[in-house]
From TrEMBL:
SUPFAM superfamilies: YjbR-like (SSF142906). It comes from Rheinheimera marina. It comes from the Bacteria. It holds the Pfam family YjbR. This is MmcQ/YjbR family DNA-binding protein.
Length: 125
């Protein structure tokens, strides 16, 4: 998965909002104002920061060399995945969805219900 594909998958998450609070080079995806993914790129590589269950975060770091503790994030709850093609696309998609779910699980119930309703009336269908 490359930078553009990661952007597209983040945008597919229900309620995803794109923001640029750290400047034009940092694509910050939020749900209900809470960050679930940060995509960034420099001259050498592209990466994505994703929220993750702490036990799963460490297991992913052990399994994939491209998965590292979250860059400029709480390293217990965030991973940085280098988008070098070494993590299979379906696994990276799962990690993006897991990150979204981790954030949504901490939202108030009313906001969670609103997201369920939004997903059920998606204009994509």
């Amino acid at each position: 998965m490359d930078f553009i594909q990661a952007q597209q998958h983040c945008q597919l998450q229900t309620g995803a909002e794109l923001d640029f609070p750290f400047g034009p080079d940092y694509y910050v995806y939020k749900v209900r104002g809470k960050v679930f993914a940060i995509l960034f790129s420099d001259a050498t590589q592209s990466s994505i920061n994703l929220k993750c269950d702490p036990d799963q975060a460490q297991a992913l770091r052990d399994l994939f060399s491209a998965v590292k503790p979250g860059y400029h994030m709480n390293k217990k709850h965030w991973n940085t995945v280098v988008l070098d093609g070494s993590v299979p696309d379906n696994e990276l998609q799962r990690q993006i969805e897991h990150s979204w779910q981790q954030v949504v699980a901490k939202l108030p119930r009313l906001q969670q219900k609103a997201l369920v309703i939004q997903a059920s009336v998606s204009p994509d269908e």
